[in-house]
Amino acid sequence: VMTDRSKIGRNNRARGAAAEREAARLLTKITGMEWYRNIDRGGKYGDVACATAVVENKTVTGKMPPLFDGALAQVAEAAEHTEKDNFGVLVRYARPGHRARWLRIQEL
């Protein structure tokens, strides 16, 4: 029987979305500004100033836009570990009782 291709990756998408929401909450708390996940998708928060894509760091393809520094300086202080590369900023954070996660933050 052929595998139903549409089902592949569904769980990964859901997990990624959860990680993005978590990171948006984290950033809101740290910087005192409202962050939302993937603002470029439009909707209710289309014009928020600190729009950013937050993705769990697994693999990266393609070039991403330049880094943004204001809020990320604060993120860097608050996060356990932060590093920059061409694709954005990697932030490591750990919730109590959870595995530490690496999140990649890109400016949109």
TrEMBL record:
<protein>
    <submittedName>
        <fullName>Uncharacterized protein</fullName>
    </submittedName>
</protein>
